[in-house]
Amino acid sequence: MLRGHSATSRVITYAEALREAIEQEMERDPAVVVFGLDVDDHLGILGSTRGLLQRFGAERVFTTPLSEDSMTGVAIGAAMAGMRPIHVHIRMDFLMLAMNQLINIAAKTHYMYGGAYKVPLVVRCIIGKSWGQGAQHSQGLHAMFMHVPGLTVAAPSNAHDAKGCMIAAVRDDNPVIFVEHRLLYSTEAIVPEGSFVAEIGKGRLVAPGDDITLVGISSMVIECLRARELLAEIGISAAVVDPIWLTPLDMETINASANHTGRVLVVDNAWTSCGASAEIVARLAEGEKPLRLARIGFAPTTCPTTPWLEEHFYPNPATIAAKASSMVTGGKWMPDRERARMVHQMSFRGPF
Amino acid sequence: MSSDNSIENAHIERLFKTLLLIRRTEERVAAVYPTDCIKSPVHLSIGQEAVAVGVCDVLQPADIVAMSYRGHAAYIAKGGDLRQMIAELYGKVTGCARGKGGSMHLVAPDAGVLGASAVVGTQIPVATGWALAAKRSASGQIVACFFGDGATEEGCLSESLNFAALHRLPILYICENNGYAIHEPLSKRWATTRLCERVATYGITTCRIEDQDVLAIREAALSAVQAIREGAGPRFIECLTYRWRGHVGPREDYDSGYRGLDELRPWQESDQVERLAGMLPLESLHRISKEVAAQIDDAFEFAEASSPPDEAELLRHIYASRA
Fold first, then answer.
1. Considering its fold, how many domains does chain B have in total?
2. What is the rounded CA–CA span in Å between residue A236 and residue B235?
3. From A16, A20, A68, A180, active-site residue
4. Do B162 and A65 make contact, defined as CB atoms within 8 angstroms?
5. Which of B177, B176, B203 is nearest to B190 (CA)?
6. Which residues in chain A have Cβ-Cβ distances shorter than 8 Å to B127?
7. Of A109, A121, A184, A183, which is closest to residue A150 (Cα–Cα)?
8. Which pLDDT score, from 0 to 100, does residue B40 have?
9. Is A68 known to be catalytic?
């Protein structure tokens, strides 16, 4: 179902896809630089920046002081001056230290200076999950950035899109918040070796279906695909849509599936209140056709560390399938929880 | 002063003309403000002009300045277009930010004015980032970043100083210390006034000028800029100065209780506009005064005659265009 296959495609991980995209863009354009805490160490942001220092040197790949606020401003100023920085944060939670520069400066600069300057900036961040990530290493805060005009938000759910979105983000003349997910890092997809872009604002119907549309955000796309298999076992045909970009949001693709199935369940890797799921549901509700709409996401509480509580904090294929089935049949049904467990999550052992 | 003798008459004329242009422009802004033709809050630099003028006089056209919302002086001193500035204050589409930025967000890429921010201190990291790009591109360009004493309390100054020193970035930080953050004096905000000592711990050479002497500020800036161009990394200058008008708006506020005229008096006695006027022949004074008045008349007429933006402009420039 992934586009862009060619004779030179092969299977690589999400982390490798990110690294390859950045490497190819740095090769293509000397203005591209990568900085952020730990981008140049032996771990290289879970492999996604590994080897870049050796290839491109410390002028273009460098760590920073723990100064997220100012380093974001530095990235903005460098971008205004013609560089194309990729600023990396190993957890999305740390972006809260950079909010002033992101919201008050990055998002505003092009507009408040009447188009005089551009800010071609990519801000990478990773949502954490499981192995005790807890309150401050697990948050999906993408909706905060969707709220503000001037920002673009990407949330690729697979290695193919991670590469295409990264190349598109680096080439774009606007600040892009690039939302990654820790548990996707080991997942594999067929990815072209060569350069390609995922068109900004273009989502994808990942799997067709007739009874209900599941809109999955970030890692929840994979959970929705498993839920779709569980639903198929009880005769429910679910479509799965991946928006890929949260700003601009591809309502055309979501609407097309929604109008076909008449039911939409948005599954977010975040809280539902004022979230991406709230936005998508609201836009669907504003449409012409009456639809059955619902959303699920994080439990409305702080993410606990202990796995006995954490497993109830997140949507999973079983809870997604149960909710979808109740929307279609009106009845109660819960698949076997064990059959909803996913290899890429079970294999994750942290520590980070 | 010995420095006075080393500066030629033409040079004094140039400094005086810029000082006067800023002073008279802002006085005109204040005078017309009650008519509501200006569609923006204004934070006037009257009384503080010497800092921007002294520093910008030693910069090259390709060099960059960044400043705060109290940025009229730096914009003008760096060569920002006066017509576009006044049109911006009037909210006209011919303004430097097409009317979308106003007084607090003056910008002039062609003159090297990076822009002005209205959230205290936030221009400092951005200016530092421009300096990083300048160093990487070996353009020879340097950045001068102006901010007030309030900004020194924001964490981003410490963060930026550390990063700039670490990477030896070509940037001059200038603190325009006017003693107040809105209405709050330093005594209620700073544990000590040893700002330069604080900055020096980052390995940055600092300099403090207490009497707003424009020639001394210029000399300090010249020395700092020379060192920066030679690759010495960032420099820091603290200039004590005084804001003659209120924090925002056109009026004086000595009747409001937080400060008195006794505090203003010594600063008026050392006013650099008056001082440099006294160093020039009468004939030069008359000529410069006429030129400045004509330039200001022209700028205000341009702003008056310009069109407001049409409605479509509201949704332009949210994003830079995509192919």
1. 1
2. 69
3. A68
4. yes
5. B177
6. 77
7. A109
8. 87
9. yes
Q: How far is CA A341 from CA A308, A311, A315, B134, B161, in A?
A: 15, 11, 11, 52, 49
The pLDDT value given to residue A6: 56
Let me know if residue B146 belongs to a domain.
yes
- A30 in B contact zone (CB under 8 Å): no
Judging by DSSP bridges, how do beta strands A61-62 and A122-127 pair with one another? unpaired
Q: Which residues of B touch A152 (CB under 8 A)?
A: 319
Residue A117 with chain B: CB contacts under 8 Å:
107, 109, 115
Query: What residues contact B274, with CB distance under 8 A and at least 6 apart?
Result: none
Query: Beta strand pairing status for A152-154 and A245-247?
Result: antiparallel
Confidence (pTM)? 0.95
Q: What is the reported pLDDT for A337? A: 85
Residue A12 dihedral angles phi and psi, to the nearest 5°: -140, 170
Answer yes or no: are the C-beta atoms of B91 and B304 closer than 8 Å: no
Which one of 3.40.50.920, 3.40.710.10, 1.10.540.10, 3.40.50.11030 gives the CATH number of domain A204-346?
Answer: 3.40.50.920
Chain B residues close to A75, C-beta within 8 Å: 129
Please check whether residue B313 lies inside any domain of the structure: no
Domain boundaries, chain A: 10-192, 204-346
Q: What topology does CATH give the domain A10-192?
A: Rossmann fold (3.40.50)
Residue A292: predicted pLDDT: 98
B315 touches chain A (CB under 8 A): no
- Chain A residues touching residue B319 (CB < 8 angstroms): 110, 150, 152, 174
How many A×B Cβ pairs under 8 Å? 144
Q: What is the pLDDT of residue A192?
A: 97
pLDDT computed for residue B7 by the predictor: 64
Asked if A80 is an interface residue toward chain B (Cβ–Cβ < 8 A), one would say yes
CATH value at residue B136: 3.40.50.970
What was the pLDDT predicted at A210? 98
The residue assigned the tokens 């409305």 is A300
Q: State how far residue B230 is from chain A, nearest Cα, in angstroms.
A: 19
CB contact under 8 A, B114 and A77: yes
User: B193: domain range?
Assistant: 2-308
With an 8 Å Cβ cutoff, are B124 and A75 in contact?
no
d(CA A246, CA A218): 10
Contact A112 B96 (CB under 8 A): no
- B97 to chain A: closest CA residue: A114
- The question of whether A16 is a catalytic residue gets the answer no
Instruction: With H, G, I as helix, E, B as strand and everything else as coil, classify residue B138.
Output: coil
**Alpha-carbon distances of B19 from A148, A302, B16, B65, rounded to whole Å:** 40, 57, 5, 17
> Which H/E stretch holds residue A273?
none
pLDDT in tens for each of the 323 residues of chain B? 444 444 688 899 999 999 999 999 999 999 999 999 998 899 999 999 999 999 999 999 999 999 999 999 999 999 999 999 999 999 999 999 999 999 999 999 999 999 999 999 999 999 999 999 999 998 899 999 999 999 999 999 999 999 999 999 999 999 999 999 999 999 999 999 999 999 999 999 999 999 999 999 999 999 999 999 999 999 999 999 999 999 999 999 999 999 999 999 999 999 999 999 999 999 999 999 999 999 999 999 999 999 999 999 999 999 999 86
Out of A87, A89, A137, A142, which one is annotated catalytic?
A137
Q: Say if CB A74 and CB B162 are below 8 A apart.
A: no
Q: Is there a domain that residue B322 lies in?
A: no
Domain-embedded: residue B318? no
Residues of chain A with pLDDT under 50: 1
Distance from CA of B270 to the nearest CA of A (A): 36
Nearest chain A residue to B322, by CA: A172
